[in-house]
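Task: fold both queries, return tokens.
Query 1:
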Amino acid sequence: MAARYLFLFAAGASWALASSVTCSASAPVSCHNTTSYDTCCLNYPGGHMLQTQFWDTNPATGPSNSWTIHGLWPDHCDGTFDSSCDASRAYTNITQILQAAAPSTLSYMQTYWKTNSGTDESFWEHEWAKHGTCISTLRPSCYSGYQPTQEAVDFFVRTVSLFQGLPSYSWLAGAGIVPSSTATYTLSAIEAALTAQFGFSVTVNCNSNNELDELWYHYNVRGSVQSGTFIPTTPVGSGSTCPSSGIKYLPKPGGTTSTPTVSTSSPAASPTGGGGGGTAPSGSGYLNVVTSGTQKGCIISAGTWYTSGTCATFTATPSGSGFTLSSSKGKCAISSNALTCSSSVSTATVFSYDGTHVTYSGSSTFYATAVPSGTTQATVYTTSHSVSLQLTWQAL
């Protein structure tokens, strides 16, 4: 059912072209599908993806001004998970594999994917064998002309790319939450700082000494892990393990500082198919907002942009070569260069779709005066303002 296409590995791969299943832009989102679907394009049963990060202080690992990578975990949609799914692909030479296929990814990992015990190589082998081999879209059968270990390269490249779009240290520091030997913080403050940037709740974990030591960012995926769209979502399963107050965020002793590379091509905004036009959305879905390469919140029922709370469910109705939108508030239209959804709208605007983004008058770029935070809502404009954004459709 799926065509094949060629793509270059991201993040510095230069050794070869790899063939992988192309997944339709209308492919279901993991954890939302109710019918059978090609599991090369639907991550199943592990459709709830966690990008997990460490803050290690004893011993300290990684730069003193950055969290480090723990891994990418395919949980079931209820918090349970499989592990170590294919012993025949439990590779024991990750360093050599990446040196040949993606040397810049390996170089990044040597700074930002660190272990506080044993060797980095053994840690990478563990993460791949335990979690990577359980990702259905990375099965060798999902590749045309499969070459051994190329799926492991995709796993590490994608995990690094996700991490680069999640600068936890900077997000916390922007809210005044910085490592300290004396200060303590509340769970609500930490969660609010991260949610304001990520758009959804983040799982915040502490060790037995109430020391902040791990973060879990949650995603569903449209398409494959290799090339699909990672869509931030709410956590499932066990919640944060930190106490409500008295949380310590200790400095890393003797650590070096660095300037983390932030991905400019966020997985949340990655296309799931080829370029050009796409089939117009139809039925129920969310309108997610992507700005500066990162998904931040969504459009709510009045047509405004919101980065907290629950996304509104929109109904997309095909109209000619495009589609119209409506919410619980009424029809949606561009009025006075602004998106609005209201019972007072008599004629809905016909939007287009480029296969990934909602477009209006030939452009996928919309605007706002600022990125909203907290309970603030931002008006979405079609005319230039200081913040540019794009709208992606998430079918339900």
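Query 1 returned. Query 2:
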Amino acid sequence: MTEGFAMTTTTSRSILKRGVLIAGAATLGIGLAAGIADGALKLDHRAFAQPIQLSGVQTQLPSFADIVEKVKPAVVSVRVKTQTVAATDEDGQGSLDDLPPGLRRFFRQDGQDGPRQDGPRQGRPQPRQGMAQGSGFFVSQDGYVVTNNHVVENAVEVQLVTDDGKTLEAKVVGTDPRTDLALLKVKDGGNFQYVQLASAKPRIGDWVLAVGNPFGLGGTVTAGIVSAQGRDIGSGPYDDYLQIDAPVNRGNSGGPTFNQQGQVIGVNTAIFSPSGGSVGIAFAIPSATVEQVVDALKKDGSVARGFIGVQIQPVTSEVADAIGLKEARGALVASAEQNGPAAKAGVRRGDTIVAVNGEQVKDARDLSRRIAKFAPGTKTSLTVWRDGKERQLSFEVGRQPAA
């Protein structure tokens, strides 16, 4: 991850280390000045109840109570037992089995003279167990749950805790590390309350509601607005995050962000935080991406993406001037993989891909996302800028190699 960005999974250790006393004073800003008198702090509660004046129109602050009542039962806390295999022993020296017996005593791990006593543990990779916590939400009545890939990575056991306190055993149906999404399924099935993914893209400034399990405090609700769209935080090739200012912390990973209709507009995934806690900048995977990935994981357990087989870089203003483009757009081909799909279509190093199927490519990131949406084997066309003019090339989309 880029420095300053943090995934929002939490562990049991982080809960013990972090307090919960930091939340108290955030709401004291409105009406504060009106309550200071005679050296004492007094809050005028009438200041909180006054409607906001906007061009002569009285507007009450929104209440999310009805939305919370509707969607909260579909949000779950995700508890994960993980296991990884260490590359070396606990003391970091690794296995001595590949050394001649006469040399092993010079690499003793117990610090004692005499021959080393090799046991079944010493010198062999040992499994390491851990615990992680995150959030998730039901997207179907029969028990499919969406969360983040980094929440369930290396999972050997997954449990879901519902809003009413029930614990459900779940399995991992599939994961997609490139978008950091995962799909779970309740093992015993059942009839669960679920939420829908929003079909419309939110606008900057829209009210949103985040529900999740920050620091292990399940069922936590926070509110804010959509702050920005299309954020690239350096986490992967398809970064297209919504930025929200609803407080999101460790443990919110995989939880939903809702619009005012109770539809999921994004999956909370990362925060920008020098301190490790919320500073009002959080990032959510848009619902359009979530829907595409979930459908693929439910069908195949993995995501098959289109592949072009080129190394690309941005087209700067200087590059555009050098190659004769009127504006900085498209993706400059740094190299084309030998015998790859692009090379077979005639793409060369130094070409600038400016359109796919006649639709203009904004930049290198836009090209990556467009190609990824095609199913392998799809016939399409590329428009490249070469020697001061555009050329049309027929193109068959390849299959992206595994991550």
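Both queries returned. Flag for query 2: Residues 11-49, 110-121 have pLDDT under 50 and may be disordered.
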